[in-house]
Amino acid sequence: MHRDSLLKRISRSAPVMAAASALIGAYIWLVQRTARIEYIGMEVGRRIDAEGGFILAFWHSRLLMAPIVRAETERDVYMLVSANRDGEMIANGVRRFGIKFIRGSAANPRKRQKDKSGAPALAQMVAALRAGGVVG
Fold first, then answer.
1. Would you list the DSSP string of the chain?
2. What is the dihedral of CA 110, 114, 117, 119, to 10 degrees?
3. Per the confidence metrics, is the pTM higher than 0.85?
4. Over its length of 136 residues, how does the chain's per-residue pLDDT go in tens digits?
């Protein structure tokens, strides 16, 4: 067996994925407890929150800090996460913060046979917004 394929199999194993999820959750918890967070323009956010559901956008480098939003609203908070194994690892790491998940992503036009559940995910996002949820 080729070394790269063995490493890939090991890294995708259930115990390694569970450990990675736990580390993600622990990292987020540690950052939330030790970081100084400065909210800029929070009055606008509170006004938007009072009016109904809304969409949050995060840069990829800030995505793991999205659970901080959960503490700032009484609304249900949903994150769009890929339906692949990496998305499962992220979802498992963030689930304990009270985030709900919508699973899916856009299809690759070059791989039309691969269904990534993008259309159902979009429908779930719209439903969550109509119900007054926060979608990120």
1. --HHHHHHHHHTSHHHHHHHHHHHHHHHHHHHHHS----SSHHHHHHHHHHS-EE----GGGGGGGGGGGGG-SS-EEEEE-SSHHHHHHHHHHGGGT-EEEE--PPPGGGTTS---HHHHHHHHHHHHHTT-EE-
2. 40
3. no
4. 566 677 777 777 888 889 999 998 999 889 888 988 787 878 887 888 888 888 888 777 777 777 877 888 888 999 888 888 888 888 888 888 888 999 988 776 676 666 667 888 999 999 999 999 999 8
Contacts 24+ apart (CB under 8 A), 108-114: none
- Distance, in Å, from the CA atom of 23 to the CA atom of 45, rounded to the nearest integer, reads 30
User: What six digits make up the tokens of 124?
Assistant: 């779930």
- Give the C-alpha separation, 52 to 74, whole Å: 11
Task: Retrieve residue 35's tokens.
Answer: 């970081």
Report d(CA 89, CA 86) in Å as an integer.
5
